[in-house]
Give the backbone structure.
Amino acid sequence: MYLKHFLLSLIALSVLTFSAAQPLNRSFHRQPINLGDQLLPTSISGSWLIGGSAGQYMGYPVFRPWLALADATGGLLWERYLDDSFAAELGRVNSLSEDALGEVFYVAGSVSGCDYLIPGFIYMLDKDGQALWFKESELFFNPMATALPLQGVLVGERGSGMVEWHGMSGQAVISSDFSGQFGLHLVQMLTTGLNSVALLGSSQLILTEWTDGEAQITARIQLENGKSIARAPSGQLAVLAGEKILLLDDSLNILHEQSLSSYGDFRKVSCSTNRCYVGGQSPEGRYIALALDAELNHVRTIGMGPNYNYPSGLVAVENGFVALGTALRQETEATPFSAPNVLATSEGSDIFLRSWDAEGTPAASQRNIAVEAITVDQYEVLSFPEPCYNSPDGHMQGQFSGVNVEVRNEGPATIGSITLNTVFLTCWSICYTQQNISRTFEGLSLAPGESTTLSFGDIQTWPLPLDEMLPLCIWASGPDGQLDDDFSDNTSCFNVVVSDVEPANSLENIVVFPNPASGWLAVQYPNPLAEIAELKILTPLGQCLYREAVSAGLATTQLNVGQLPAGLYYLNIQNERGNTVIPWVKK
């Protein structure tokens, strides 16, 4: 029995190391705005488990947690949204963990709206991404998880000392509070053996054993500003704490420490069998990685590129390292998700998966698409005196018909597909809003040096803050599903001077959002109403559940639909000029 336990422990530890020979340069552009969160090497033929968010700012911030399994080259094996929670707005993936012996993944994350919090989520998934069980994390709003091989999963709350053990079927086994006696504020959990887990807190590191329905502490050390933990090349523990990286033995004695303060501020450490990498920012705010040898001494500094930020996940491999993150079109020192103004100027974002070799050379995609010009057959921009939330002097709307985009292949490889994108910063409605449009073009066969004109179609903007100029800017992303090697030439704009014209009075092009809705439903009219309209909520059988008179001059109506049962409904808007019926879903 002891031999079996020992062998299983060795197997469990073996999955903590990973090697990959394939260079990676991939772009996962799932929605107009995408955020990379977590990256996990798996035991499935060199594949990568990717966790992030995909969505858009459209009236209400809708970022659904997104999960994908990519092969060794970055190609998608499967992908899915993690949206079984009561709400999925502002969803994030906080942690990924694999039980290679049980052949399952554990995923933990958080969801919320911009004005409320709800419990996070925990999934147990098979290797095909199918949920074996899902549960909300009850009192945990910001949970993380790590697998106990063949025994279930530990779930903890970031910033708290509460840790729960859930069995393979998802049932709670025990709950242990490390905050009262030890003052633990959890930062990261790392499975180090079949029953052992390291709990890294902001001021300490605790080694624990979980057996027979009990938790025991085997070692503990005080630290300053704990940030990240990994298995070192020697099999010991590498810990980022404060401005140092520490090498600790199994009893948490300090074997070696190295100051990193002169190189910058670092948040993530990962190690292979011969080297460690730490990721962070230089004193100037540039995103960098440091290569460290087996004794954690500095070997070289690697720039991660001005356009490949914000890097959030870093994994050391035998021939370098791989990073996951959010590719923005401008530099930023802030986390994109927590700084909406970053996304407001980023014109969207890609989730990137990219590798750097041992010499610090990034994998190139050999793709460089340039947007050379935008032409519009017809356009009209109207200004209105009625104010909107963030534009007290009035607002404007634009109509663009026959939008065409000329693109040129500036790279050495033929390009088969690209995505064209545009964004407008709308009048605020509920929280922060954007209007994003993305269209993908396949089968291009665009040879190096060749140009082509792509039909983007028609664009009707939502109400926008009043300005003297309305720019229609379109940028290209994800050529052949890879990152553009040069971001500097992939955007062009068509600028229109705003004219002062009276609004139309049609009920066409009315938009309702979010759809599905949970608490509130917003009705956005293309122009402020010139006369009173009647608004009704109807069931599929025509029963009227709600009626309201909408005053002239309004551009938006907010409806409280939280009391309605889940299901399909119809919104009917009628005045003397017409009648519009719009289906929507209450979740």
Remarks:
- DSSP finds two helices and 43 strands in the chain.
- The chain has three domains: 2-23+30-262, 369-497, 511-586.
- Confidence is low (pLDDT under 50) at residues 1-19, 500-505.
